[in-house]
Structure formats: structure tokens, C-alpha cells
Design goal:
Length: 103
Amino acid sequence: MLPSLTLGLLGAGWYARLMRSSMLDVLRQDYVRTARAKGLARAQVVLGHALPNALLPIVAMIGIDVGYFMSGVVVVESVFGWPGIGQLAWQAIQRIDIPIIMA
């Protein structure tokens, strides 16, 4: 449980702030106003129209942060002594095992 919490809390605040600001921007768009004017329920508007468009910046930032997360995995696995993909990546870097590094 502790390794998962350690890795999960690492960027949770940043992504929560980004999601909030993105959702606020999307909820002000014309197509959201149109969906509300058509009489759709608030949950349908938020989940069906706004959320998919608000997730785009989050997905882009996760793609950028993958390297940062991998370095965090290496450290967390070392601290907790659990073998995993982080230690595999570290050993591949030390052995210069190009196929594993690329994967």
C-alpha cells in the first residue's frame, strides 16, 4: 500500500489543479451551453461533453511526465525493496541492454 500511495501522491496535486482549471475552461464553452439549452441533465453535460475535452491536457501532461514517473518508480522500489519495472530499467541501463531500455 505504501509504494502505491508514494507514487500516487507524487503528482496528484498538480493533476488535480490542472483538471480543475481545464474543466472550468471547458464548462464556459459554447457547446456546453448548447447542451444545457437542449435540456440535458447536468451529469450528462459534465460526463458526456465536458469531461472528455477537459482530459486532453491531462493526457498530454502524463505523456510528458512518464520519464519523471519512471525515475520515481526506481527510487520507490529501492526504498521499499520490491523488485519491479523500475529495477529492471535500472539494471538494463547499467548493462546497456538497448532492447529493454527502448521497451
